[in-house]
Amino acid sequence: RLPLASPSRMLRTVLPLLILSLSSASAFVTPSIPLRAMGRTSVLRNSRPTISMQAVDDKTEVREYFNSEGFNRWNKIYSESDDVNKVQMFIRTGHQQTIDKVLGWVDADGSAAAGQTFCDAGCGVGSLAIPLAERGANVKASDISSAMASEAARRAEQMDLKGSATFETADLESLTGKYDTVSCIDVLIHYPTEKMDDMVGHLCSLTDSRFIISFAPFTPFYAALKWVGSMAPGPSKATRAYLHKEEDVVASLEKRGFKVQRSEMTATNFYFSRLLEAVKQ
Predict the structure, then answer these.
(1) Is 244 within 8 Å of 216 (Cβ atoms)?
(2) Contacts made by residues 63-67, CB under 8 angstroms, sequence distance 24+
(3) pLDDT at residue 39 above 50?
(4) Do residues 135 and 198 lie in contact, with contact meaning Cβ atoms separated by under 8 Å?
């Protein structure tokens, strides 16, 4: 585990930012129109029936948010734009650190360079899918937001891809196929605890080899920060955020025959993400 700053020091740093920020730490992912094929990348419409998330309908909330003001906010965060505040910069930096850790694992084992297949579930604007395809991987990426998937395809079209990348609009529950590696980065924050196990189980069913997942870990301190952030003034700023206990995620993986091989923790002042690499036994 990476060493973290003391709670008192972090609160002194984070609390003013929480109150000043117009963004929330609760959104990482990822609505549905047909889009044109673009070179070696494409965006596809997926109309498969999906599983209801819960009575409060988190899925609809996430879809609508990331197809509207959420897309503008997060597209800017996951870019090189200077038009971001301090909190958004912390999130950008933290998310990129998580992506770099995944790419470090992939570079070490040569899986992307060998042209292996990857399913990037909840791909956002392609922060992971595009670098994988640049390295030679054949990537099928998806996002619940058509705006996100379209932007990812646009960015991929501008890159020199050794492999391939296909982007589609789809929620996690509707994904099918078999892949060498399935990745799901910073998406579980949108799934309540009672839905997490089923979702992890479904994603595990898409690979017989490796599953890479990251999530916002539940600890009393992180839960307190989340509560403070929810009390910040201003209109609703994002979707509901769910923290998950690491032992619960690990237990869900093990139930499907996966064992954690490597783990990392990324922590900036406003971004906390536990990263796990699990291999099928």
Answers:
(1) yes
(2) 63/31, 63/32, 63/144, 63/145, 63/171, 64/31, 65/27, 65/238, 65/239, 66/27, 66/29, 66/30, 66/31, 66/143, 66/144, 66/145, 66/147, 66/148, 67/31, 67/145, 67/146, 67/147
(3) no
(4) no
- Predicted model pTM: 0.79
Residue 221's SS3 state is helix
Give residue 4's pLDDT: 47
Show the tokens assigned to 235.
Answer: 């209109």
Size (the chain), residues? 281
Give pLDDT, residue 222.
Answer: 65
Q: What is the pLDDT of residue 16?
A: 40
Contacts of residue 275, Cβ cutoff 8 Å, sequence gap at least 6: 98, 101, 102, 185, 212, 213, 214, 263, 264, 265, 266
54 vs 240: CA distance, rounded Å: 13
pLDDT band at residue 18 under the 50/70/90 scheme: very low
